[in-house]
Amino acid sequence: MTEATQTIERGIQLTPTAFKHIKMLQEQQGDRELCLRVGVRQGGCSGMSYMMDFEEPNKIQDTDEVFDYDGFRIVCDPKSLLYLYGLVLDYNNAMIGGGFDFTNPNAAQTCGCGKSFGV
Predict the structure, then answer these.
(1) CATH of residue 29
(2) Are 105 and 84 a contacting pair, CB within 8 Å?
(3) Per its UniProt record, what Pfam families does this chain match (predicted)?
(4) Residue 76: Cβ-neighbour burial (10 angstroms; 0-12, 13-18, 19+)
(5) Per-residue b/e over 18-55, b at no fewer than 16 CB within 10 Å?
(6) Residue 75: closest CA among 83, 90, 64, 89
(7) Which of 94, 100, 102, 116 has the least CB density, counted as fewest CB within 10 Å?
(8) Does any domain span residue 55?
(9) Residues of the domain holding 88
(10) Does a structural domain hold residue 116?
């Protein structure tokens, strides 16, 4: 069981390390109101690739799923959530291969870099 799943169940989980890093990046953007949009798009070496970026709260759609982490929001469109439900987002500080890590229970295959997947 990861650290993220020990807390409230959410469709997209954040480990404490990922949460800390995302909050740091949010502060660097200079806007504490920004939310994180997570989704998928066609492409990548395994067929689909992960995408995430900060987004203004006024761009959240009525159909989006919103997960709250102590006032910080993760937003995901319903089509992406079909592929991402249960995703655990972690962060790794390694000099080689570091960055965000996606553990997706829906992925039948992943590429070597871990940034794309197939279902």
Answers:
(1) 2.60.300.12
(2) no
(3) Fe-S_biosyn (PF01521)
(4) buried
(5) bbebbeeebeeeeeeebbbbbbbeeebebbbbbebeee
(6) 64
(7) 94
(8) yes
(9) 4-105
(10) no
Tokens 């997960």 belong to residue: 67
* Number of residues written out for the chain: 119
Q: Are 14 and 89 in contact (CB under 8 A)?
A: yes
Give residue-wise pLDDT tens across range 78-96. 999 999 999 999 999 887 7
The reply to whether 111 falls in a domain is: no
Assess whether pLDDT exceeds 90 at residue 10: no
What phi, psi does 95 have (nearest 5°)?
Answer: -70, -35
Distance CA 60, CA 55 (A): 8
Q: Is residue 117 part of a domain?
A: no
Domains in the chain, number: 1
Q: Residues of the chain with pLDDT > 70: what percent? A: 80
Q: Which two tokens stand for residue 72?
A: 């910080």
